[in-house]
């Protein structure tokens, strides 16, 4: 459920989760998460004068001395003139864009940038390896995820010591557990049903530098598995169908797909493909054993502002194909018992109306958002009369309905109030009885002041709700909640090896006043026995603020390497995200996008004023659209920060949004605005980081990218760094690291991701003159 939600959100320049992420037992989590999710980014730099390392940089024995510092790569200038509305822009680095990713000159330049980064960081390579060993040492390498009941089996993912990827496994549910209970545990002893490995990603990944599973779907009869595989990081998938017991292939693989694939009965699949700009635009029905060329096209979305989504009802009786823009969403349904009848309209296309649908008994259930009901309402309609609706949960101005999850006897509403997620459980009347407004919902209780909660797959016919919980000091925890008894039972908490003790850490919520008086929620964590709170503590501030995404506070075992060295870690829940409801998002997009940036700056100023840090101890980080945030605030207030990390940053906003041939551009005019209109053109230009680089001092900066990134083209961070090298007036370090074999979510292996965390942290520690203080 979490994975599918992220993938749906992923049709965007989307990766909001910090680089320092919790390693979970699923390489199919595209972002981490990431979000996760992957793409292409190549970097180029222009530099007219040799710059030495800043005197503020620590130059101990583990680092390069000033005389050893090589000059950064120099990107040539090739004038490219762009004119619109009487405004002329010169892009000297436009040549760095190569859609084929094969231009020898561009690739050579990217390799020079990587070599330069390696050279600058070579003095702390040993510290980086020690830090990586420390981070990896917290991971229980041989582990098993919380087993999940599906039909007659427990399904789970298993990691092995030293292996990068997971095994997908299952065991039969024993006879004495046929009736589900929150207290069930999967037997593993010699008398237990035998473990069966359905798919070992480690074996599949051996022939590839990058490997990611985007979907893993078991057929209704539990005999077959369809899985979607990406071996480049470009998010173009191949779907294989195999026998769950023997791993024998069933038919030929389906190529050129999105990860959206669902079973339509036991002998057919529905899947989604993309057009030339990687927009999911066609839904197909595939009968097992038939050639892909004979598949039936169920629907074509011709409007390039819209993309397709695909998911199954919890009842498994219907599949839903949705077509959505950033402001409108409508739905079709497919009866899986009669796939030959094709799609039927469930909710019509109405501009500004966003609907998400599901099914139970003789009713469809619809979460519906509109301009009037901006935080959504929930209604139901009879399957045989979809135009007749009954309101079950009314719209509330202070409570946002994020999603609903259906069971045979219950409706679960995932909501947000005061910036925090909630789970409310409602009892439904027996199937066949009239549905009326739902009352007396039961709230699930949580224990941290700030936290994150995610839905998970749960069996429709049971009264057990599964969800995951985490906070800045609580590792990812899987719970089963008995909806009849109101009891939560912990099924698994991610182990953190070593001396970790959550009671050593403090998490809190603060509110920072923005320039217009709006109070911005911020989430804070630190180790209470190490920080002084007198302005001298180092602090890492993270932000995102786009796509209505809720950047809820979650745990990272990697992050402990900062917290245990006296860092304070803060998340700014700025406008453009969805943490405070739909208006929070709408006040951070279009012609109000600058609120995102000024909110972040206001949070930084609040932290300084309240002695959490000083300018000399403040570092910032953001990824993807969060990288746009970092680029924008660096141009606006470079004096406020000591160091910045911009991961796969969307920084060439104006040029990209003017080019409909670039993936995601047309669908995102409803997010950023259409710069072919004069008002949006000049507003966008005023904050687009590449266009706004100035001759001024900047802090230490690390920029990362992935060559195969389909969400943020590698050329965007390339231009940003090249132009900044040419114009900045300081001697601070500017580094670029481009993964030449990965995409938006960087490398795919779980330990490879930890290595990236270690690299980023060492960069931050260098910038703060702290590497000589490191102890292991």
Automatic annotation (TrEMBL):
Its EC number is 3.4.21.-. GO terms for biological process: proteolysis. Residues 553-770 form the Peptidase S9 prolyl oligopeptidase catalytic domain. Residues 72-490 form the Peptidase S9A N-terminal domain. Pfam families: Peptidase_S9, Peptidase_S9_N. It catalyses: Hydrolysis of Pro-|-Xaa >> Ala-|-Xaa in oligopeptides. Keywords: Hydrolase, Protease, Serine protease. Residues 55-76 are annotated as: Disordered. It is an enzyme of class 3 (hydrolase). It comes from the Eukaryota. GO terms for cellular component: cytosol. GO terms for molecular function: serine-type endopeptidase activity. Belongs to the peptidase S9A family. Serine peptidase whose precise substrate specificity remains unclear. Does not cleave peptides after a arginine or lysine residue. Regulates trans-Golgi network morphology and sorting by regulating the membrane binding of the AP-1 complex. May play a role in the regulation of synaptic vesicle exocytosis. This is Prolyl endopeptidase. The lineage of its organism: Eukaryota, Viridiplantae, Streptophyta, Embryophyta, Tracheophyta.
């Amino acid at each position: 459920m979490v994975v599918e939600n992220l993938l749906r959100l992923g049709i965007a320049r989307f990766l909001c989760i910090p680089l320092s992420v919790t390693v979970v037992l699923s390489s199919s989590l595209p972002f981490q998460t990431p979000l996760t999710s992957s793409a292409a980014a190549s970097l180029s730099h222009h530099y007219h004068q040799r710059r030495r390392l800043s005197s503020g940089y620590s130059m101990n024995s583990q680092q390069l001395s000033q005389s050893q510092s090589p000059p950064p790569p120099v990107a040539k200038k090739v004038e490219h003139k762009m004119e619109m509305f009487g405004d002329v822009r010169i892009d000297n680095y436009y040549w760095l864009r190569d859609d084929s990713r094969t231009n020898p000159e561009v690739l050579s330049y990217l390799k020079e940038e990587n070599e330069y980064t390696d050279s600058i960081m070579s003095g702390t390579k040993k510290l980086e390896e020690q830090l990586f060993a420390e981070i990896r040492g917290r991971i229980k390498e041989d582990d098993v995820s919380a087993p999940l009941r599906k039909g007659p089996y427990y399904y789970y993912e298993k990691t092995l010591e030293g292996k990068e990827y997971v095994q997908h496994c299952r065991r039969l549910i024993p006879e004495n557990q046929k009736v589900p209970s929150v207290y069930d545990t999967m037997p593993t002893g010699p008398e237990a049903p035998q473990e069966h490995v359905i798919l070992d990603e480690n074996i599949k990944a051996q022939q590839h530098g990058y490997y990611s599973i985007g979907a893993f779907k078991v057929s209704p009869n539990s005999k077959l598995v369809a899985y979607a595989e990406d071996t480049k990081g470009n998010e173009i998938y191949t779907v294989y169908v195999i026998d769950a017991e023997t791993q024998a292939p069933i038919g030929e693989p389906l190529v050129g797909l999105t990860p959206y694939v669902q079973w339509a009965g036991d002998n057919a699949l529905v899947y989604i493909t993309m057009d030339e700009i990687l927009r999911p635009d066609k839904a197909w029905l595939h009968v097992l054993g038939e050639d892909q060329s004979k598949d039936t096209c169920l629907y074509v979305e011709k409007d390039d502002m819209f993309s397709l989504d695909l998911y199954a009802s919890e009842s498994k009786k219907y599949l839903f194909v949705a077509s959505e823009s950033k402001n409108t969403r409508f739905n079709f349904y497919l009866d899986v018992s009669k796939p030959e009848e094709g799609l039927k309209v469930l909710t019509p296309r109405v501009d500004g109306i966003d609907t998400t649908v599901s099914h139970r008994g003789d009713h469809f259930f619809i979460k519906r958002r509109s301009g009037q009901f901006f935080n959504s309402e929930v209604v139901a309609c009879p399957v045989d009369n979809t135009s007749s609706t009954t309101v079950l949960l009314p719209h509330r101005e202070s409570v946002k309905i994020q999603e609903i999850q259906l069971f045979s006897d219950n409706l679960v509403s995932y909501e947000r109030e005061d910036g925090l997620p909630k789970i409310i459980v409602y009892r439904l009347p027996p199937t066949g009885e009239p549905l009326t407004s739902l009352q007396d919902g039961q709230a699930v209780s949580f224990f941290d002041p700030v936290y994150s909660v995610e839905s998970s797959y749960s069996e429709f016919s049971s009264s057990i709700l599964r969800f995951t919980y985490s906070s800045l000091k609580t590792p990812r925890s899987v719970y089963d909640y008995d909806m009849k008894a109101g009891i939560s039972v912990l099924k698994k908490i991610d182990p953190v090896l070593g001396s970790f003790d959550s009671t050593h850490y403090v998490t809190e919520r603060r509110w920072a006043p923005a320039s217009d008086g709006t109070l911005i929620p911020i989430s804070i964590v630190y180790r209470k026995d190490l920080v002084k709170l007198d302005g001298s503590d180092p602090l890492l501030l993270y932000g995102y603020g786009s796509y209505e995404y809720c950047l809820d506070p979650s745990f990272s075992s990697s992050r402990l390497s900062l917290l245990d060295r006296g860092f304070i870690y803060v998340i700014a829940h700025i406008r453009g995200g969805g943490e405070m409801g739909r208006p929070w998002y709408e006040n951070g997009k279009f012609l109000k996008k600058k609120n995102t940036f000024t909110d972040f700056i206001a949070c930084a100023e609040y932290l300084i004023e309240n002695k959490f840090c000083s300018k000399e101890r403040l570092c910032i980080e953001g990824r993807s659209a969060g990288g746009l945030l970092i680029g924008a605030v660096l141009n606006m207030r470079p004096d406020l920060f000591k160091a910045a990390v911009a991961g796969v940053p969307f920084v060439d906003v104006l040029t990209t949004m003017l080019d409909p041939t670039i993936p995601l551009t047309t669908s995102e005019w409803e997010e950023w605005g259409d710069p072919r209109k004069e008002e949006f053109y000049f507003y966008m230009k005023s904050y687009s980081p590449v266009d706004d680089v100035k001759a001024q001092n900047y802090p230490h900066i690390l920029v990362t990218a992935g060559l195969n990134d389909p969400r943020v083209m590698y050329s965007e961070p390339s231009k940003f760094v090249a132009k900044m090298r040419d114009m900045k007036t300081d001697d601070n370090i500017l580094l670029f690291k481009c993964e030449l074999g990965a995409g938006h979510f960087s490398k795919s292996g779980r330990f490879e991701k930890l290595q990236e965390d270690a690299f980023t942290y060492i960069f931050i520690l260098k910038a703060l003159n702290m590497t000589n203080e490191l102890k292991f």
